[in-house]
Amino acid sequence: MNAIAMNASATKPEITGTRLPVLVIDDHPIVLQGCRRVLEDAGIETVAEATTVVGGYRIFHRLRPPIVICDLTFQGSGLAGLGLIRRMRAVEPGTRILVFSMHNDPVIVARALEAGALGYVLKDHASAELFDAFERVRAGEVYLDRRLATEVAMLRTDARRTPESQLTPREQQILARLAQGKSYGAIAADLSVSYKTVTNACSQMRQKLGVRTLAELIHVAVTHAQRQG
């Protein structure tokens, strides 16, 4: 296998070989070695390698490989891989990026996908999974293992859930009428319920929405109505 390597102290990439279908960016030599073995199994003959974010972007910008395997964290740089993914996708929107990382936090996984990664594999998983992920990403498909996919989906569902979505249909009816400036008595008449039912519902809504007073509840009601258009 031909290889391109760049370390932190290099100023220009040392290039050998002619074809360059894959770029691997990671600051751990053992990880680079493992990726090379997996790529050999996938029939890849030429691999570009970088051990820094700067070096990785330099090689990417020069050679425009269609597929990149990238870590998220680099020594002294935090989650710099997220910014790198965004920059690569900005230059080449069609680039297929597979993240190979130790981070199993669904928030970080979601951020990587939002930045433009097509797949995400944990480093503590078997090399066979990296191979499967690479093949899926190479084919233009999204890859996440089942557990990560479930956790990310739940995270996105929670992010879309507003406090008002916790309310019952009856409470939402009452909230809408509060936004219209109606009194408890008028709301009770509109909905054909007792005055006490309305006051009890408002008390429940204040607890659910984290507000203390009727004025604060009305403010939430008006804001919610404005969002609904």
From TrEMBL:
<feature type="domain" description="Response regulatory">
    <location>
        <begin position="21"/>
        <end position="138"/>
    </location>
</feature>
<dbReference type="InterPro" id="IPR000792">
    <property type="entry name" value="Tscrpt_reg_LuxR_C"/>
</dbReference>
<dbReference type="InterPro" id="IPR016032">
    <property type="entry name" value="Sig_transdc_resp-reg_C-effctor"/>
</dbReference>
<dbReference type="Pfam" id="PF00072">
    <property type="entry name" value="Response_reg"/>
</dbReference>
<dbReference type="InterPro" id="IPR039420">
    <property type="entry name" value="WalR-like"/>
</dbReference>
<dbReference type="Pfam" id="PF00196">
    <property type="entry name" value="GerE"/>
</dbReference>
<protein>
    <submittedName>
        <fullName>Response regulator UvrY</fullName>
    </submittedName>
</protein>
<dbReference type="GO" id="GO:0003677">
    <property type="term" value="F:DNA binding"/>
</dbReference>
<dbReference type="InterPro" id="IPR001789">
    <property type="entry name" value="Sig_transdc_resp-reg_receiver"/>
</dbReference>
<dbReference type="InterPro" id="IPR058245">
    <property type="entry name" value="NreC/VraR/RcsB-like_REC"/>
</dbReference>
<feature type="modified residue" description="4-aspartylphosphate">
    <location>
        <position position="71"/>
    </location>
</feature>
<dbReference type="InterPro" id="IPR011006">
    <property type="entry name" value="CheY-like_superfamily"/>
</dbReference>
<dbReference type="GO" id="GO:0000160">
    <property type="term" value="P:phosphorelay signal transduction system"/>
</dbReference>
<dbReference type="GO" id="GO:0006355">
    <property type="term" value="P:regulation of DNA-templated transcription"/>
</dbReference>
<feature type="domain" description="HTH luxR-type">
    <location>
        <begin position="160"/>
        <end position="225"/>
    </location>
</feature>
<keyword id="KW-0597">Phosphoprotein</keyword>
<keyword id="KW-0238">DNA-binding</keyword>
